[in-house]
Design brief:
The complex is a heterodimer of chains A (470) and B (309).
Chain A lengths: L9 E2 L12 H19 L15 E4 L4 E4 L2 E3 L4 H22 L2 H6 L1 H17 L2 H9 L4 H27 L4 H10 L4 H21 L1 H7 L1 H5 L10 E4 L1 H5 L14 H6 L10 H4 L20 H13 L6 E4 L1 H4 L9 H22 L4 E7 L6 E2 L5 E11 L5 E8 L5 E4 L5 E4 L4 E10 L8 E12 L6 E8 L2
Antiparallel strand pairs in A: 2-3, 3-4, 5-6, 7-9, 8-9, 9-13, 10-12, 10-14, 11-13, 14-15
Chain B lengths: L12 E7 L3 E5 L2 E2 H20 L4 E2 L2 E2 L5 E6 L2 E6 L2 H11 L1 H15 L2 H5 L2 H18 L1 H4 L24 H10 L1 E5 L8 H14 L7 H11 L6 H4 L30 H14 L1 E7 L8 H15 L3
Antiparallel strand pairs in B: 1-2, 4-5, 6-7, 8-9
Helix pairs in contact in B: 2-3, 3-12, 5-12, 7-12, 8-9, 8-11
Classes of the chains: A alpha+beta (470), B alpha+beta (309).
Amino acid sequence: MSELAEQTLYQKRIPIYPRSVKGRFRNLKYGILVLAYGVYFLLPWVRWERANAPDQAVLFDLPGRHFYIFGLSAEPQDIIWLGGLLVIAAMLLFFVTGIAGRVFCGYFCFQTLWTDVFILIERWIQGERPARIRLGKSPWNRDKLVKMTATYGLWLLTAFWTGLTFTLYWGDAPALIGQFFSGDAPFAAYATTLFLTGTTFVMAGLAREQVCTYMCPYARFQSAMFDKDTLIVAYDATRGEGQNGRRKLSKELKSREDRHAQGIGDCIECGYCVQVCPTGIDIRNGLQLQCISCALCVDACDAIMDQLHWPRGLVKYTSDTAKAGQPTRIIKPKTIGYGVVLCAAIAALTWSIMTSASYTATVEQIRQPLFVTLSDGRIQNTYEIKLNNKVTKKVTFKVEVDKLPSAELHLEGLKDRVTLNPQQRLRVLARVRMPPPGIGENQHHYEFVITPIEGIDAPPVREPTVFYTP
Amino acid sequence: MSESTTKQQAAVQTTGHAWDGDLQEFNNPLPRWWLWSFYVTAVIAVIYWFIYPSWPVGRGWLEGFATITYQVDGKAEESRWNTRAKLLHDLTESHAAQRQREFMGKVAEADFSTISNDPDMLAFIRSVGKGLFGDNCAACHGRGGQGVVGLYPNLADDDWLWGGSLENIQNVITNGRQGFMPAFKETFDPQQLDDVAEYVLSLSGEAPDSIAVERGKALFQGFGGGCYYCHGMDGKGLPSQGAANLTDKIWTIADVDGQKTLEEKKAVVKKLIFNGVQNMRKMPTWKGRLSPTEIKVLAVYVHQLGGGQ
């Protein structure tokens, strides 16, 4: 076998120079790109008035342990919401993949979006695909040096702005950016920015399709959601190949009628679908793991078909069942299952956020000693009340004991009410004193009643606890 | 379908071997950069050996070139990087440690009335005080300050032998105290001892009025016993002497609460009067062992345990 000589265990990356293409899917992808970039790059600059925190709409304040998302203020103990969000994201991915295949990869994945932008930069400086291939192969000269420096420089700038923007979500953006450039920002800000600048540059500029093919786990496990009804980008081989394969356009093979008469298919082997592919595959070889369903080959083939005035759809979105001539099922057990779980997760998260308390109050008994006898003969139990004001307003609470007659409550350092600053947490020592009840039970069940009386309008918390006597 | 010519990546090679006639093995080559990233991890491991402690060598180990400074008793020490030094470093330099220092500074500057009206500062003192109390005081007074009857006073109640104000408590912790009561074995005969014990118990309602109580009262308030020198004419004690208030329900030395009948109660009180309190109630001085701020924190902590005055 002559191939044996070329065979190797390691493969060099073959550079891919995707050709530009115009079409409906390309336009849709540009739309999504503009939207996603707009949200990502502008969101840290959106302001939102707050009493005691930076006026930033989306702010993840790690040192302060507060996470602000517009009107919502989450705390570390609300981490379950993040869990819910991730479950929703996963289920949405499964649901969409089950129906429409790798839509996320092709349209929404940041790897795809950033690679798109980097390719735009590359094309703007170096020109269309043939020019880029020429430049890639040419020896190093002044022209190549200038163009490559400009390309890499602009990539680096984009990557840096991407990394810096990510950092801005974790601090007050206007203040942080000032500190960043004057050298006063925290080490974590520089480290994060540097790291993300590096990864963005490498992933979107150099690695590109290697990320999807070799690194990304989603690419691999999405095949588990595929079935014969899943939407895929596919080449219509029956139409393209005819009985005797595909052939380039030539004098005898110009019109469809001529070609069909000779058993030749509609594919004119222009290669446009291969040239536009960002992962460098030939869609005519069938469904491949490298395919991210970006549909640029659909746009490419449609453009050619339009020029020839032949019907579109030689490469198109279809499914295995549709290719076999049967209708594609959208509603199938898999879709229903994922859909139900998705809706349940959304409902649970919404319910959890909507009903989250504006404050929490817990009472914990100090158990050593459980009780003491006071000089006047009364018995004293001690408790620690933990109050957490979750809103950005001052809140005053009234603390009382209920169902324990003749008991006297004393709050250390306070009268019977506690005022908490916005988002303050406070532990208050509470002493309850009561004359010994004589003979009977030595445990008396009763309740602490903690009522917000100023600042917020919320129902009181009743915390059951026990009073111990000798 | 025609073979793809331009893209080798899509083509699947076989290793070229064939077993049993047609059984072949695919060759899906790894990307070259994957191999390089493996080499990079190996290089990083070698760099790591130079920075951090790594290989055991004989009885020691390669210490690495990284150093770390940490504080021991306020003195800066430098050593090669190790996790123990890192812990010491974090105990004084970490964000939490700095915040604690900042708060301790506030406590040091504040006076007692400011502290006792600031719930935030009180909560901080409860946290820090718990540690200090556990390290220094709990051995005698117990984890929750409940004490041991007969030996160590209960700090979780509202009775204070040496005064229950913050200043009093601070003073006691700073300078230490020795509880003392003379023995009356030479002074009282058995009958008198019985009478005085009966009177003392009657002060807090443990014994009913009787002739014996009247006799005991005469001894207590007269020159015969002279108990009033320290405990006062009304038996309410004298904080300057550390003399107990005998009219309240709290017994710190004689375990009256632990006895059932009047006779048993009288027996423990008699024993105390007979022997006095000598060389058994020693509170050490903490001046010099704890900083003034730590003593201040402990005073507030003890004050709020059960209810200071």
